[in-house]
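Example 3.2
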Amino acid sequence: MNTPIQHGSFSITRQLLAAPALVFRAFAQLEAKHQWFGSSPGFEIHEATLDFRVGGSELWQGKHASGMSFHNDTTYHHIEADSRIVYCYTMTINGVVMSTSLLSIELRPAGTGTELRLTEQIAVLDGSGAPCVTNREHGTGDMLRRLDEFTKAQVSLA
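Structure, written as C-alpha cells:
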C-alpha cells in the first residue's frame, strides 16, 4: 500500500557577517561545505561529492552515531553567482526514501554582510509527515548556524 505524500514548507532568514561572495563559496566548494554542512555532531561522512553547476549533483552519505544511515542526493537547477542557488534533493534514511525537497537560497548584500533567505518545500514520502518538516526546519536552522560560524571565521582570517 502506498503511503500518502504529505507536504510542508518553511523559510528561514539569517543575517551573516560575511559578504555574499564568501557565503556563496561556502556552498560551491566541497572543502568549505564539508566544514559546516558535513560537520553535524554525531554524523560520520563516508562519501561526499560536489559538482556545483546547473545540472550538477551532490552526494552526502554516512552514518549517525545512533546507527542510522543516511543518503542525501542533490541536483542543481539554477545558480547565479553570489546571489541564488536552487536545487532538489532526496533524503534516504536506512534505505527508505524519506523525502524529496525543492530548496532555494537567496543571498542579498546587507551592509558589509549578507541576508540569506532559505526556503524549502518538502514532499514527505515515508509517512512521517509534520514531524519530518519540523525536524528538517530545526536541522536546517542548526546547519545555518554552522554556516554563520564558518563564514565568520573566514572573515576574521582575511
